[in-house]
Specification:
- The structure is a homodimer.
- Chain A has about 375 residues and is of the alpha/beta class.
- Chain A contains ten helices and 17 strands.
- In chain A, the strands form two sheets. In chain A, strands 1, 10, 11, 12, 13, 14, 15, 16 and 17 form a nine-stranded mixed beta sheet that branches. An eight-stranded parallel beta sheet of chain A has the order 2-9-8-7-6-5-4-3.
- In chain A, strand 6, helix 7 and strand 7 form a beta-alpha-beta unit.
- In chain A, helix 5 crosses helix 6.
- The first copy, chain A, is globular.
- At the A-B interface, helix 4, helix 5 and strand 10 of A face helix 4, helix 5 and strand 10 of B.
Chain lengths: ~375, ~375
C-alpha cells in the first residue's frame, strides 16, 4: 500500500494531493436514495453490486436504505464485505477450484452466501465444499439472457441444474441469475428496452419450465444501471443488482436518458483529481493521472465543468490535456477534476476514497469529510 | 489489501489460485543479466525504471548486477523504494505542490534523490522545499526530444533552466533528461533508430549550448526497452532508464527485433494465471481475468503456448477465450497463462508476485519459490 493517503479529514479541497479518488458525498447520497426509493416503489429487492465501490462502508449505507445485501464478483470481495459487516452476499459468478470453494463455504458459515452455476460438475464441487465445511450455500442457476458469456440456455438445461442443486446436501436452490451486461450500454432507450424484453422472454420460459418441475425460483436477479427500470417493470425479476448508479461514469452518461420523467436520474459522484505537471505547448498540458489512476477501457475521462478541455494520450502516469480553440490552458500546478470513463476499474486502482462535502457549489468552501479505504481493492481471487 | 495471497512458497504450480501475477524467476534473472551485461559492455550506467516492477526486492537484484539506482515516476514510489533500501532514486517527472515537494525533500535527506524540471517556477519551488527541509536535491532539465509531452525545447531554454538550478541553494544540476517514450513501440528497427538519431541531435545541441555556458551535464538519461541500444551507441546518453526488459510484454513482442546478433534478447517473464469459470459455447470459454487483473491499454494478452486460443471481450472480471477452428476448448476449472499486453499497468493491479521456478520446462515440476509484495502498487501520489 502507498505510504501516505492523499488527504486527511478536515482538509480544504485545495490540500488534497493528486491524483486522488474524490467522492462528492452529497451527490453519492442522492444517488443512493434515488435508487432505494425506486426499488421500494417498484416493489423489488435491491442488492447493489459491490464490484463498483468495493467498500463495506458504502455497502452499509445501501443496506441502511433498504438493500437486502450485496453482490460481488469474487470470493475475496465477499470475504472483505463479510468482514466489514455485510450479512448477505451473492457472488455473481461461477467459482471453481478447491481452494476458492472452501473459502466460499467457510464464508457461508459466517453469513448468508450465494453463488451462481452453469455446469453440473460445479454443483457437485460446491456440494462437496459445503459438506467439508459444514456450510449451507445458496445456489442460483445462471441463464444466458443474451450476453453470450456465462449461463446455461433458458428452459430445460436450467431445470436440470436446479434439480441437481435441490438434490445436493449443503446447497439450497435460490433461483435464477439473469444478467444482461452488454445491454447496459446500448445507447438508445429503445435498444435497452428491447434487449430486456428479449431477456424477459428467456426468464419467463425458464420460470415456466421450473414450475412444470415443481420448482420455485425465490430470486430472479439481474439488471444494471442502464436497464434496471425494465427488469423492475417486467414482473419477472425481483432483485436488482445495480452497481454503477452510486457513482456514475462518463460512459453511462453517453446513454440517452429514458424518456419518462419518473425515471431516477443519477449524478456524477466520483472523480479523479489530477494535477498539471507540465504545460509547454500553447494548446496542451500534461497531468499526473494516466492508466494507473484511471480505468480507460470504456473511453477517456471527461473534464468536469471544463468543456474547453479534453483528455487524451494516456501513458502509465501521464495524460495529455488538449485545449479547444478559445479555451484556457491550465497552468502547471493547477488541478482538474476528471469524470472517469468507467468507474469500477478506476476505483480498483486507488486505496482511498477522499469524501468531500459541498463540491456542488464549487471547490471554495468544499472540504474533506472522510478518507475511506477501498477495502476490497485488488480482491481478484 | 485482499485478505489472502494467491499462493505460498513451496506450493506446486497447480495450487496457485487465480487470477495471479506469476513471475518466471529463471527468465527474469536471464533478462536482468542480459541488460546488465549490455550496459557494462556499452560503458553506460543502468538505472532501471521501477515503474515496471514496483518492488525493492527486484530493484536490489538490479543493483547487485551493477545498476546505479532506480528511476520511478512518483514521489510515493520513491518513498517505497527508499524504505526498501534503494540509496539512489530519480523521479523522472515534474513534481508540483507543497505537500509533494516537501515529501521529496524529506526523502532527499535519506537517500540521493533526483527529479526533472521544465519550468523556472518549479526550480524555485524545489529550492524552497530543499531549504525548508535542509536537503540537497539533484535536478535534471527535461528536454523534449520528440515525444511532445514534458520538457523544454533543446538549446537555450534548457541552458536557462540549468543556470537557475545552479544558482539555487539546496539544488544541484544533474544534467539532462532526454526520454523519447513513443519511440519505444515503433515497430521497425529503422523507425526506432531514426527516432533516436533525431533525439540525439536535440541532445547534442543542448550539450553544446550548456558547454558554451560553462555547464556540464553529468547525466544524460533516457532510453527504454525498445530503443536503448541506440541511446547507448550514441556517445551522448550515459544512463539508461529501461524498465520493461525485466518482464517484457505482448506489445513489446510486436516490435520487429533489431537485426544484429549481439542485441540482447529478452524473454516473457510475467504472466497472469487465469482460470476458466464457464465454457458454454463450442468455440469459447470465459476466464476470471478482466480489466481488474490485466492492463489492456496496449492490446489484449496473448495465451502462452496456446496458439489455438485468443483473448477478447474483457469485462471487469471476465475475459472471453476464443478457440480457433481445430483448436481445443479449455474446460471449466482449467487454467491458462496470459502474457499481458502491457506489463506496467498489469503489475500495478496485483498485490503479490508469485515467483516460480522451472516454468520453462512446463508446469509439471514447476513450483512456487517466493511470494513477494508489489510494494509500490497503487503509489500514484
Amino acid at each position: 500500500m502507498p505510504p501516505f493517503p492523499p488527504a486527511r479529514p478536515g482538509d480544504p479541497f485545495d490540500r488534497i494531493d493528486t491524483p486522488a479518488l474524490v467522492v462528492d458525498l452529497d451527490a453519492m447520497e442522492r444517488n443512493l436514495t434515488a435508487m432505494a426509493t425506486f426499488a421500494a416503489r417498484a416493489g423489488v429487492r435491491l442488492r447493489p453490486h459491490a464490484k463498483t465501490h468495493k467498500s463495506p462502508l458504502i455497502a452499509a449505507r445501501q443496506i441502511a436504505l433498504g438493500a437486502v445485501g450485496q453482490c460481488c464478483q469474487k470470493v475475496s470481495e465477499a470475504a472483505v464485505l463479510i468482514e466489514g459487516g455485510v450479512r448477505d452476499v451473492l457472488v455473481t459468478n461461477q467459482i471453481w477450484g478447491t481452494a476458492k470453494l472452501d473459502r466460499l463455504a467457510a464464508l457461508a458459515r459466517q453469513a448468508k452466501v450465494g453463488v451462481c452455476v452453469d455446469e453440473a460438475a460445479n454443483v457437485d464441487a460446491l456440494c462437496a465444499a459445503a459438506e467439508r465445511l459444514g456450510a449451507t450455500i445458496e445456489v442460483l442457476v445462471e441463464i444466458d439472457v443474451g450476453g453470450r458469456r456465462c449461463g446455461v440456455d433458458p428452459g430445460a438445461d436450467a431445470v436440470a441444474l436446479a434439480r441437481r442443486i435441490v438434490a445436493s446436501p449443503g446447497l439450497t436452490f435460490g433461483g435464477l441469475q439473469a444478467y444482461f451486461g452488454t445491454a447496459q450500454h446500448r445507447r438508445t432507450p429503445a435498444e435497452r428496452r428491447d434487449a430486456i424484453a428479449a431477456a424477459g422472454q428467456a426468464v419467463r420460459t425458464t420460470l415456466e419450465a421450473l414450475a412444470g418441475a415443481g420448482l420455485v425460483a425465490r430470486t430472479v436477479g439481474g439488471a444494471g444501471t442502464g436497464t434496471f427500470r425494465h427488469e423492475a417493470a417486467s414482473g419477472l425479476w425481483n432483485e436488482l443488482q445495480t452497481g454503477s448508479y452510486v457513482f456514475m461514469d462518463a460512459d453511462y452518461a453517453l446513454n440517452e436518458p429514458d424518456p419518462d420523467n419518473d425515471a431516477p436520474r443519477f449524478e456524477h459522484a466520483l472523480f479523479v483529481l489530477t494535477g498539471v505537471l507540465s504545460a509547454r505547448g500553447a494548446d496542451r498540458a500534461v497531468v499526473d493521472a494516466g492508466h494507473k489512476a484511471l480505468g480507460n477501457d470504456s473511453g477517456f475521462p471527461v473534464i468536469w465543468r471544463r468543456p474547453d478541455l479534453s483528455y487524451s494520450r494516456p501513458a502509465d502516469e501521464h495524460g495529455a490535456i488538449l485545449v479547444s480553440p478559445g479555451g484556457s490552458r491550465p497552468a502547471p500546478g493547477e488541478r482538474l477534476l476528471l469524470v472517469p470513463g468507467h468507474c469500477d476499474p478506476t476505483v480498483n486502482l486507488h486505496d482511498w476514497y477522499v469524501g468531500v462535502r459541498g463540491l456542488g457549489s464549487g471547490r471554495d468552501g468544499c472540504h474533506v469529510e472522510c478518507v475511506w479505504p477501498v477495502a476490497a481493492r485488488g480482491a481478484v481471487l
